[in-house]
Amino acid sequence: MALALLAAVAVCPASAATLTTTVSKENKTIVMLTGEIVKGDAEKLKAIIQSANEAGRLVSGIRFNSPGGNLLEGVKLASIIRYRKISTVVANGAKCASACFIAFAAGTQKFASYTPLSVSRGDR
């Protein structure tokens, strides 16, 4: 019974990162990505960018607080960030490891406080 429960937990998908937005004084959209990066997060970012553009706003920055996650999804996020010329930020007290760092590094301008950034596995 315990083995079956453990197997069921092991195949449950991780919950996706939360992507929220705010509008700056300059009427630009800032995206906040919080949590583990999983498949589908790049599509969420694309939808946010499209919605902001339809409202007449650019997405000028993305703030990260993530332990990492799916490496391929991090590369997809990086591609979107680079193509759209979005700045990336890791604020004081936030975390950005593994797949998150790949996305962070794609920013046209990169801002990080004295928070450690990590390219290693996020479970350390």
How would you describe the overall organization of this protein?
With 124 residues, the protein is α/β, with parallel strands linked by helices. The protein is built from four helices and seven strands. It has helices spanning 2-11, 41-54, 71-83, 99-105; strands at residues 18-23, 29-34, 59-65, 87-90, 96-97, 110-112, 117-118. The protein has a five-stranded mixed sheet with strand order 1-2-3-4-6, with helices on one face. Strands 5-7 form a two-stranded parallel ribbon. The longest helix is centred in the middle third of the chain and has 14 residues, at 41-54. The protein starts with a helix and ends in a 6-residue tail after the last strand. Residues 1-13 have low confidence and may be disordered.
Query: What integer value in Å does the Rg equal?
Result: 15 Å
Average pLDDT for all residues: 86
What shape does the CA trace take? globular
Distance between the termini: 31 Å
Give the fraction of residues assigned to helices. 25-40%
Task: Please give the count of helices.
Answer: 4
Low-pLDDT stretches = 1-13
SSE pattern: HEEHEHEEHEE
Largest sheet: 5 strands, mixed
Q: What structural class results from the helix and strand content?
A: alpha/beta
Instruction: Let me know the number of strands.
Output: 7
Biggest sheet, strands in spatial order? Answer: 1-2-3-4-6
DSSP strand (E) fraction?
A: 15-25%
